[in-house]
Design a protein that fits this description.
- It is a single chain.
- This protein is of the alpha/beta class.
- It contains 14 helices and 17 strands.
- The strands form 4 sheets. It has a 6-stranded parallel sheet.
- The longest helix has 15 residues.
- The site of 3-phosphoglyceric acid has 8 residues, from loops.
Length: 392
């Protein structure tokens, strides 16, 4: 795909879609990772003399104006991070916005209002896409986190303007793309999280590529049960047991080493104060619930990580939000941090939140800014926001 580095933007109005869908509390941005991740593109455009018109969604306002979902606090934080005034409009298109853009000097940065305040955004409405396009001469998509959405500001607009990728978009596609198409080996995928259902696509796609597949988190217990062990009150998707067995069989067929927990931390309640104990996987008591992998499993998983050249991690090993059940997830994060010879790719969402929580973010090779987007990419799906960009 063409990149923002391939084109001349001097004096041009650039509509730059970013993913500023950041967590907020009481009108303050509480995690600015995604804002920081977009800075290289914004700085590049500004330094090259473009009029930088930024657009993003925030939350899911469902086509209506929701006061708490205005991008005003984001503009303020961005302004501080850039060390430069960032004006913000109360709309995302229309005459008032055009007038504001008319006052911009080369290098100026403007942030439009939340594009999801308009019902046409998520419907990928052609009129709305045109209205966005009318604001600019060039379209840059740097919103990797929203690239799996075919919306007016991610896909539709690209039909009307020269459309190129931003630097963050480029980096994400480069790292994830190389990992899947030309991985260094041994290549290990660690798949966790609550549900098998959410990880079917990614497990199926990665089984064709990896040397080791490690599973953990709530989804592991459907595999454990499918292999004939009792799992007490642990999470179970009964309708996915056959599928789970078929993955284990496919792994064997392909020579992929398949790792499941051999011991677990069980609790008599889903809470920090619960009674807990470590048991072998064959001995989960009937009215207890497994909420984390156990110490033996941690050791095995740590060794696999240490001996891998590339690891992709998507999904926690346990209920890491509660300290009592965070050891498994922390062990994975720590092992990745310690394995300096291992290239570590963290899928966005919960795994990214986990490495943040354990203060290990700066030790990872790449943390994706996309949750759903990185998952769909790892499933081998084409991302509409990327497909819409001009080819080189
Ligand atoms: C995300 O946070 O994963 C992206 O910003 C996409 O948000 P969405 O799931 O509301 O489309």
């Amino acid at each position: 795909k063409q990149s923002v580095k391939d084109i001349d933007v001097k004096g041009k109005r650039v509509f730059c879609r970013v993913d500023f869908n950041v967590p907020m509390k009481d009108g303050q941005v509480t995690d600015e990772t995604r804002i920081r991740a977009a800075l290289p593109t914004i700085q590049h455009l500004s330094e090259q003399g473009a009029k930088v018109i930024l657009a993003s969604h925030l939350g899911r306002p469902k086509g209506q104006v929701v006061e708490e979902m205005r991008l005003t606090p984001v503009a303020k934080r961005l302004s501080e991070l850039l060390g430069k005034e960032v004006k913000k409009t109360d709309e995302a298109y229309g005459d008032a916005v055009k007038a504001e853009i008319g006052t911009m000097n080369d290098g100026d940065v403007l942030l439009l209002e939340n594009v999801r305040f308009y019902p046409g955004e998520e419907k990928n409405d052609a009129e709305l896409a045109k209205s966005f396009a009318e604001l600019a001469d060039v379209y840059v998509n740097d919103a990797f986190g929203a690239a799996h959405r075919a919306h007016a500001s991610t896909e539709g607009i690209a039909q009307h303007l020269p459309a190129v990728s931003g630097l963050l978009m480029e980096k994400e596609l480069d790292v994830l793309g190389k990992a899947l198409s030309n991985p260094e080996r041994p290549f290990t995928a660690i798949i966790g999280g609550a549900k098998v259902k959410d990880k079917i696509g990614v497990i199926e796609n990665l089984l064709d590529k990896v040397d080791n597949l490690i599973i953990g988190g709530g989804l592991a217990y459907t595999f454990v049960k499918a292999q004939g062990h009792e799992i007490g009150k642990s999470l179970l998707e009964a309708d996915k047991m056959d599928l789970a067995n078929s993955y284990i069989a496919k792994a064997k067929e392909k020579g992929v080493k398949f790792y499941m927990p051999v011991d677990v931390v069980v609790a008599d309640d889903f809470s920090e104060e619960a009674n807990t104990k470590v048991v072998p996987i064959e001995e989960i008591p009937s009215d207890w619930e497994a909420l984390d992998i156990g110490p033996k499993t941690r050791g095995i998983y740590e060794d696999v990580i240490k001996n891998s050249k590339l690891v992709i991690w998507n999904g926690p090993m346990g209920v890491f939000e509660l300290d009592t059940f965070s050891k498994g997830t922390k062990a994975i994060a720590q092992a990745l941090a310690d394995a300096t010879d291992t290239y570590s790719v963290i899928g966005g969402g919960d795994s990214a939140a986990a490495v943040e929580k354990f203060n290990l973010a700066d030790k990872m090779s790449h943390i994706s800014t996309g949750g759903g987007a990185s998952l769909e990419f790892m499933e081998g799906k084409a991302l509409p926001g990327v497909v819409a960009l001009n080819d080189k």
